[in-house]
Write a structure and sequence with these properties.
Layout (H helix, E strand, L loop, with lengths): L1 H11 L4 H14 L7 H19 L3 H4 L1 H18 L6 H12 L7 H6 L8 H9 L8 H16 L7 H12 L2 H13 L2 E7 L6 E10 L5 H4 L14 E5 L5 E9 L3 H13 L3 E8 L2 E7 L3 E2 L3 E2 L4 H12 L13 E3 L13 H10 L3 E2 L19 H12 L3 E7 H7 L3 E7 L3 H8 L4 E6 L3 E7 L2 H9 L4 E9 L9 E2 L4 E2 L11
Antiparallel strand pairs: 1-10, 1-11, 2-4, 2-5, 3-4, 3-15, 6-9, 6-13, 7-8, 12-14, 12-15, 13-14, 16-17
Length: 502
């Protein structure tokens, strides 16, 4: 490691001054690789987090695949280090591997030696490689994940209970050795429990948008998603569409009382030539799908063949497809939300819970069933009772994902726009894809997902669906109770909309 780092420093001198700053920061972190004490490990965690935070919302992130690689590299290294033994062999092996490279992919050393630009897509190829699992899942590990998926769909608030999850894995998998390692498995796979709320029940609306800025207009001039005075709009998901200049899309989050103002505002920006507004569509409801159907134990993800695709296409094109004879195995689709307005005597309490509860948890962060000295996010008894109530009312849903498995399938994010079709028909395709967020509008379905480039090409060419490859431009800010007025029991109007007439 010392030899590699000492030689790399020479090659950095060949880069531009701005690139040298990034590379020197990167190398200085690598030089803290010795983690034989807890203090050294904490320091390295802090360095990882500091670098990622600095560049996560940077404009450079859109155009520099090197930063995409570093984001994955440091995230995965952190996971391995957090469960490492005293000798940390797995951590060291992974840490050095990315510098040396793979048989089919050049590592950091070779890429810098060749003076590879930070914008070169060979860094993206290294990012893909560093997300591969070193050892594919065993059958009992896959069975454990399937057990947790079923629990998340069927058990309501108990899906957030650590003890309940462990007990069900033990009863279903019958592997005492696995149970001892289950927390490490969740950590290795970066498993997450997701909370999804039916937003209209909280006086919020979602809109899918797509617009292109003119050359002299910045995104911040249209909507400053970092300004907390724009309240719920800061929770929007915004993506740059790759291959297009200044083209953005995503999901806007707006108070129900402000939806007309937002529509008028963006239409005015369109008339004034600041943007070309291609799409602004209200979302009626949403669902989420997860699938392990194509995962093969001890092998990894199976790649669908052209023959597989040719069989599937007619089932997606026909207007009246036959119903599937058998239920899809290892495929998990959240049920519909209860779309009735929630009648609650204290809306402030409900909004307070909505704002403060995280939208995802790692296993250690799950708020129920943990030992008192291990609790990382604590809910009051009143909060637990309220959360249980809204789970039963079906306006909040709990889902489970393992992000490392998803990333191993693909790191490429896409938005897909397709015509409305029966969900049992669309599910034939969804079962091929490890993770999808589905948004249903009046005439279309919008899907956010990770796709292989081949699958994206098939959807675009053979089905003629709109397929947009994207990079995140704005990470949604967490909801703040400061965006809500308890006295009037309404969300505050986003600043950008205050001049629009109601």
């Amino acid at each position: 490691m010392k030899t590699i780092l000492s030689q790399i420093s020479v090659y950095i001198e060949n880069y531009s001054p701005s690139d040298q700053i990034i590379l020197n920061e990167f190398i200085s972190i690598l030089q803290n690789y010795e983690v034989d004490t807890q203090e050294a490990r904490r320091h390295l965690f802090q360095l990882f987090e500091s670098f990622q935070t600095k560049y996560r919302d940077s404009e450079k992130l859109l155009t520099q695949p090197f930063l995409w690689f570093v984001e994955s590299y440091f995230t995965n290294a952190s996971k391995l280090l957090s469960v490492a033994s005293f000798h940390a062999d797995d951590f060291y092996e992974y840490f050095v591997k990315q510098l040396r490279g793979y048989p089919d992919i050049e590592g950091v050393f070779k890429l810098l030696q060749k003076g590879t630009p930070l914008t070169d897509l060979r860094w993206e190829q290294l990012q893909y490689a560093c997300n591969r699992l070193s050892v594919p899942l065993k059958s009992e590990e896959l069975h454990a994940l399937e057990t947790v998926h079923n629990l998340s769909l069927e058990t309501g608030i108990n899906a957030l209970d650590q003890r309940y999850i462990k007990t069900n894995i033990f009863n279903n998998v019958k592997s005492p050795t696995l149970l001892k390692k289950i927390e490490n498995l969740f950590l290795r796979l970066d498993s997450r429990w997701l909370l999804r709320f039916y937003t209209p029940a909280f006086d919020l609306e979602l809109l899918f948008f797509q617009f292109q800025l003119n050359k002299s207009t910045s995104l911040r001039e249209i909507i400053d998603f970092q300004n907390p005075n724009n309240t719920t709009l800061c929770n929007s998901s915004v993506y740059w569409i790759r291959g297009f200049r200044n083209m953005y899309c995503g999901i806007l989050v707006v108070p129900t009382s402000s939806i007309l103002s937002l529509q008028r505002y963006l239409q005015r920006c369109h008339r004034q030539g600041q943007i070309v507004l291609y799409e602004l569509t209200k979302i009626i409801t949403s669902r989420l799908s997860v699938s392990l159907l194509l995962y093969q134990t001890t092998k990894g993800w199976r790649t669908p063949t052209q023959t597989d695709w040719n069989r599937l296409v007619p089932m997606l094109k026909t207007l009246y497809p036959r119903k599937m004879r058998m239920k899809l195995t290892s495929f998990y689709l959240t049920p519909p939300f209860n779309e009735l307005k929630l009648d609650h005597h204290d809306s402030s309490q409900l909004i307070s819970l909505f704002c403060k509860i995280p939208r995802q948890f790692s296993f250690k962060e799950l708020p129920l069933g943990a030992n008192e000295d291990q609790i990382q996010f604590e809910l009051s008894k009143a909060d637990i009772k309220l959360l249980e109530e809204i789970c039963l009312r079906k306006i909040v849903q709990i889902s489970f994902i393992s992000t490392r498995l998803i990333y191993e399938f693909s790191l490429d994010n896409y938005w897909i726009k397709l015509p409305k079709m029966p969900l049992n028909q669309l599910s034939r395709l969804l079962a091929w894809i490890p993770f999808c967020r589905l948004y249903f509008a009046e005439k279309n379905i919008f899907i956010w997902s990770y796709l292989t480039q081949e699958l994206a090409q098939w959807l675009s060419t053979d089905l003629e669906w709109t397929v947009m490859r994207i990079i995140e431009n704005h990470t949604p800010l967490s909801f703040s109770f400061n965006w809500y007025t308890s006295k009037s029991q309404q969300w505050k109007t986003p600043l950008i909309l205050t001049t629009e007439r109601q």
